[in-house]
Amino acid sequence: MPKVRTWQLATGAAVVGLTLAAGAVAAAGPWDSGQRKAERARAASHGPTGGAHHEPPIPKPPAPVPSAAPVLTALGGPRTVTAKEPTAAGDLPELLGPLLGDPGLGTAPAACVVDLATGERLYGKRAETPMVPASTVKIATAAAALTALGPDHRIPTTVVAAPGAGEITLVGGGDATLDRARLGELAELTARALREHGPTPKDGKQAGNDAKPAPKIRLEYDASLYQGPALHPIGPNDNIAPVSALMVGQGRLDERTTGAATRSADPAGEAARVFGQLLAERGIRTGAPVPGRAAAAAVPLAQVLSEPLSSVVERMLTTSDNDIAEALARQTALATGEKASFTGAERAVTKQLRRLQLPLAGTRFADGSGLGRRDKVSAVLLTTLLARASDAAHPELRPILTGLPVAGFSGTLENRWSDASAGTGLVRAKTGTLTGVNALAGTVVAPGGRLLGFAFLAAGTPSPYDAQPALDRLAAALAS
């Protein structure tokens, strides 16, 4: 089992030769319930950040907002069964069969539909066949992370200092959501602690025109938490940065961009450079940052935390964020004693899904994002995952359902639901798109308020402009 360093926040410690106050760390991170609501709102409305899809989205205006009553009913209230409601597996072949024959779905699409209240399979076609899932594999990544870490887990980014060494180290904890604003908060906490307890003029003079400038502090950065190759097997790609335990803005060279964008080849070094600039803006002079390892005797100076894992998962699923997905796979590895690498993450994710008693025959999780083609997932696995997430016995998995994009309204389904307008607002689903591979897996409120889980996987698709509408029609058919 790899050793993972955990920083214990002390009430006081000798840092750069002086004693630190304990409050430097406690100020970081959102805590109250009002902030949590804001986090959820941001996760639901966040623009595309992960660049999950290789093809551009199909621009379609959303349909009118549906009545909320069916949605609320499906979430736990009483429902009324109508005569047209599909109530058994025998009702669905006639409904879905012709739609699965759409040439836009290739020659052998897979499908599975289940009743999420009972777990009963209502329909299956090649449901057990392992197929390339594209970004729908993020559902499995989310389930593994939530099972291993819990929905309240937060990922730290820490600054530590060794006593008397005149240096500080920025330590990456694997937070792929770290942005410039939160790194600025960390710089503020660090500068405050250094001004109060770090190396400052001690020649007896009052600060003023004749005061000596504060000496430069050596700045190191430690991204050693992750192991193995940082580059995704697909190679350099605008859809994902090299996987690093330390990054800011997901390694984008232009901080104003979202979605697919040119990434730094060294996200950790770039994050440290930005951190040095933020310290300089706060009056702390550092030299050029250099890579290193936090000393064993180092103690915490300042820390910021990610949002709770539940919110991070929601953001990943809503926006199909590849950087977050790979980070969560590695966090799962760390939590389960595996190496934080692509190989270790695959073992860890598989281990956690096995704990959930899922059908894993033929499956493979070579990455957490679905950008690679070595991943293999079956339609029945995806629907079983959705059933577990809706089960009251697994409340930790509920963010999987709440993070799914809403047809016609949010995330990767926001502009993709006019031809299949019957499902607008009633379908929530994770999309998946690679060249020649298209998938859709999620939930739908059927007539009478019945909540169904579905997964449709297609390979050999001629074009996303044919495959995506065909998948949308399948999901909408369940709602209409």
User: In the CATH hierarchy, what is the superfamily of the largest domain?
Assistant: DD-peptidase/beta-lactamase superfamily
Count of folded domains: 2
| SSE pattern | EEHHHHEEHEEHEHEEHHHHHEEEH
Number of helices: 13
Mean of residue pLDDT values: 83
Within the largest sheet, what's the order of strands?
Answer: 4-3-12-11-10
Biggest sheet, in brief?
A: 5 strands, antiparallel
CATH architecture of the largest domain: 3-Layer(aba) Sandwich
Q: State the separation between the terminal residues, measured CA to CA.
A: 51 Å
Radius of gyration: 24 Å
Helical/strand content category: alpha+beta
Percent helix, as a range, is: 25-40%
Report the CATH C-level class of the largest domain.
Alpha Beta
Low-confidence stretches: 1-88, 200-209
Morphology: elongated
Proportion in β-strands: 5-15%
CATH topology name of the largest domain? Beta-lactamase
Compute the number of strand runs: 12
Describe the protein's topology.
Elements: E1 14-15, E2 18-19, H1 23-26, H2 33-45, H3 69-74, H4 93-100, E3 110-115, E4 121-125, H5 138-149, E5 156-161, E6 167-172, H6 180-197, E7 218-222, H7 267-281, E8 290-291, E9 299-305, H8 309-319, H9 322-335, H10 342-355, H11 379-390, H12 398-402, E10 427-434, E11 437-445, E12 451-459, H13 464-479
Parallel strand pairs: 6-7, 7-8
Antiparallel strand pairs: 1-2, 3-4, 3-12, 5-6, 5-9, 10-11, 11-12
Pfam families: Peptidase_S13
Region (Disordered): 29-73
InterPro entries: Beta-lactam/transpept-like, Peptidase_S13
